[in-house]
Amino acid sequence: MARSQKNDNFIDKTFTILADIILKVLPTSKEEKQAFCYYRDGMSAQSEGEYAEALENYYEALGLEEDPYDRSYILYNIGLIYSSNGEHIKALEYYHKALELNSKLPQALNNIAVIYHYQGIKASESNNPTTSNNMFNKAANYWQQAIILAPNNYIEAQNWLKMTGRFVNDNRFE
Q1: Which of 44, 54, 62, 112 has the fewest CB atoms nearer than 10 Å to its CB?
Q2: What are the residue ranges spanned by the domains of the chain?
Q3: For 29-89, which CATH class?
């Protein structure tokens, strides 16, 4: 049974019904419709913490989806799962692939920065100041890119940039 048929709450059921109606009336190919179904099922599984099932659905969607914009969100969600599982190198790989297809994904830039910041903290705790500083600088670079795209988001990152002297003052931040 498809995950979309297993949804238990009202909002999920409503979304599923609306998505099915839209899918039927939109002039899209069979592959695009299948890709969307896999993507929707992947999001549903991911929201329930069923990461293995979500990954299976996302990989199926990737195999069918041709639109670069849509593929970028699939890749981004795969990155989210790997990040949640602590597989930061794999997460970075998928976030970067998503950005190659859609450079306007501030959430991917933010998540890359979060990973580099985490690595900077770990390096600092291991008494490795050079690596720590390099990771913090990488985090700063990605946060600044994210803030340029979404200036009202990532307030904590903006504060961290200012507090650590990594804030690049151009008028886009104010």
Answers
A1: 62
A2: 29-89, 104-169
A3: mainly alpha
